[in-house]
Amino acid sequence: MVSLEFLQEKANWVKKELLKIHKIAPGIRLASSLSCIEILTTLYYGKIVNYDPKDIFWEERDRFIISKAHGSVSFYPILADLGYFDRSQLALVGKPGGILADIPDCSIPGYETLNGSLGHGLGVACGICLALRTRVRKEMVFVLMGDGELHEGSVWEAIMFAAHHKLDNLTLIIDNNKICMLDYCKNIVDLEPIEEKFRVFGWQPTILDGHSINELHTALSFIKQKPSQQPSVIIANTIKGKGVPRLETDSLCHIKALSVEEIDQVLMEIN
Q1: Which CATH entry fits the domain spanning 4-270: 3.40.50.970, 3.40.1650.10, 3.40.350.10, 3.40.50.720?
Q2: pLDDT tens digits, one per residue of 56-65
């Protein structure tokens, strides 16, 4: 049994490593990567996702599709820590000779797919789920998506497809940080009530605090142990730019970078 204290320590470590990466690669999407740290930590250190860093195409692995790839640079430290690639690569993000770019892609060990523009990850996951079920496989498929992606029509096509085919091996996690690229989501197209929409579309929704490792681990463990004949969605309420006050209150934080001095200040506060 993994302790919550261990998971929280790992989440804090990931946050510090992400900020160090931002210092050498200011072009990363920092705010979006900060909001999903606890989600990623719980999935991989909390023994939710089955994986094998020594065999990245292990047939019995669960598939993890990161649809909001641009906002998942916080996954880099986790992959390095678990042995997908050498930790020295974390100092080479966006640099010649490194394998890690400012925007992640599937050439990086541990990234399952390349989904193109936003809104395609869930559709890809539906195809994988259907293929696994056709082959009578027990592996699960997890998808991490930003709430801004729900503005894309292709997402709702996939939502309908998954419900129609009763893809109970599919779990969608929405990083519901309420800010897309250029404003609050509610000012672009209001997504609420998200839970009711998914329920009407035939999904099993759960709303929780996306920064609570306890809530995340409890919900994900329950979903993995008790398939429901429905696809599941976790609506994880998060704060974009979590832990950096200037970003948390900025509707344009998605495209904002911190100065070296600001990064050092946040690191000092974490320590």
Answers
A1: 3.40.50.970
A2: 999 999 999 9
